[in-house]
Amino acid sequence: MNKTISQRNNVNIIGNGNQTILFAHGFGCDQNMWRFVTPSFIDDYRIVLFDYVGCGQSDINQYNPARYSNLNGYAQDIINICDELDLNDVIFVGHSVSSMIGSLVSIKFPDLFSAMVFIGPSACYINDTQYFGGFGKKELLELLDVMDNNYLGWANFLAPIIMKNEDKPELVKELEESFCATDPIITRQFAETTFFSDNRKDLSRIKIPVLILQCSDDAIAPDAVGEYIAQQIQDSSYVKLDATGHCPHMSHPEETILAITNFLNKQYQTV
Amino acid sequence: MNFTFEEYNDGYTIYAGGIQINQRNKFEKALLESKKIAQKAVEENVELIAIRNTLLETQHQLELQLRKLSRKESFQRELSKVLSHDLQEPLRKINLFSSRLLENEDLNHETDLGRGLLKISRFVEQVRHLLEKLEQYNGLEGKALEHVPVNIEEAVLKAKMDCGLSSEKVNIVFENHLEPDKKFLSDNRLVLILFRELLVHAFSYHKNDDYTSKIKISVDTITENVFTELKDAYKYEECLRIVFEDNSNQKYIPSTSIFDLFWKLDAEDTELRFGLAYCKRIVQLLDGNITTATNKKQSLKFIITLPFK
């Protein structure tokens, strides 16, 4: 029997509102990472959570290396979900690479999302002559090499760098376990697709309001990247969080919730 | 060192064999290397056999496809002949004889017979027009494409002129978001016909002559999977996207049936329309895709994606 898109992407719907917020997780994560922020939106919004194919509890048999060699393949997951659930006027909240995945969806279907929230986004991770992405190409190739040769060592090395917040070791452990729980080949390809994508030219094509949440001391998406994205998007709001690391929705959920709520109140004029 | 211990009733023997540690490492390394090479060769051989089998299967499928194409081509030729001659000829004769009858002194347009003959002539004209359009539609299939650089804005303006639409009748806003060095290669004639049909379609529902159609055409790029028919095949390429937005507030419900032959706007619509089916066929011939969408403003959008070459 053919599985539905909702089964394929392990879609879960909670909340009581009319308007939908779609939460899209980042690289090496799953929908479970949103658990600290979703309770604050549950009364006013319908919340759609999902796992990209190859992540979390999605149907791993549906993973197609050719499809997911490009962020457009992941964007197609979101399009499929919105299509099956007949969603429109959606508020999209994307963490890390999902910000650019959401951008691709918005460019393809400009009327599908009414607003977007980017948490720790990066349009391009590799430094360029006029652009600071935070990484050299060689550095990223070495990181992929480590993934190939010592996956567990890689997970053990990267999780604390991404999460920061040494005072919350349980979060570092959770991220490390999330890395380890996913298929190493799929995660390696997702890493390559993520770190070698360049979506800088796409930013100016986004026509809807976007909130950019930039963390302090983020080793994956430095300040310059968040500022660059804010400059390129026509209708953008930029908020620099006190939260450190790359996962403020896990390490500093209150600050993240407040920033999102303020943005949504401003956009939809609700109190 | 390797040792073997052998025990007898009255004693035991110890056999010892040794090799210098650096020699042993060397031999082990060579053995592992040889094992790796042998394993790789086996894997490659398995892969080659699989590829060969796939190729043979593909060859067989290709042969079947070619046979099917050949059958379709011959059917197409027969259909073209029927449309362009066999069906046209009796209609021409009906028209001729009814005209002759009308010319007869005893018949005039006021009599029942005269009115009946006039009706027959009108219907015959409609059917002839329908057949001509069907012939054009059918003829698209065999058209040889000529890929040349196409300027979309020029094609839109030319289409507007060809349709005889003045600026009072149709207000076209054109937005080009392509990078200046981006070249779009396609068949200019077909692109022109495409815009002509879209403009005619947008304009054809306005009964009121004073109405001004508001059309917005924007052009940009989009990344699409080039495989639309093959299951589980993916290759992403940049395509040209044309959004043709008709803001005339017509009562459309977007659906795929809009591109069917003889699609009707509503039950009161008596015309047999070809336009959008014709557009779809052109877009398919250009290896592209056409879909519809509405937005909050309730305008109808045609979204056309075409390969750059």
TrEMBL record, chain A:
One of its GO terms (molecular function) is hydrolase activity. Keywords: Hydrolase. SUPFAM superfamilies: alpha/beta-Hydrolases. Residues 21-256 form the AB hydrolase-1 domain. Transmembrane segments: none annotated. It holds the Pfam family Abhydrolase_6. It comes from the Bacteria. InterPro entries: AB_hydrolase_1, AB_hydrolase_fold. Belongs to the AB hydrolase superfamily. This is Alpha/beta hydrolase. It comes from Flavobacterium agrisoli.
Automatic annotation (TrEMBL), chain B:
Residues 82-309 form the Histidine kinase domain. GO terms for molecular function: phosphorelay response regulator activity; phosphorelay sensor kinase activity; protein kinase activator activity. It comes from the Bacteria. Pfam families: HATPase_c. It catalyses: ATP + protein L-histidine = ADP + protein N-phospho-L-histidine. The keyword Transferase applies. GO terms for biological process: osmosensory signaling via phosphorelay pathway. SUPFAM superfamilies: ATPase domain of HSP90 chaperone/DNA topoisomerase II/histidine kinase (SSF55874), Homodimeric domain of signal transducing histidine kinase (SSF47384). Keywords: Kinase, Transferase. The keyword Transferase applies. This is histidine kinase. It comes from Flavobacterium agrisoli.
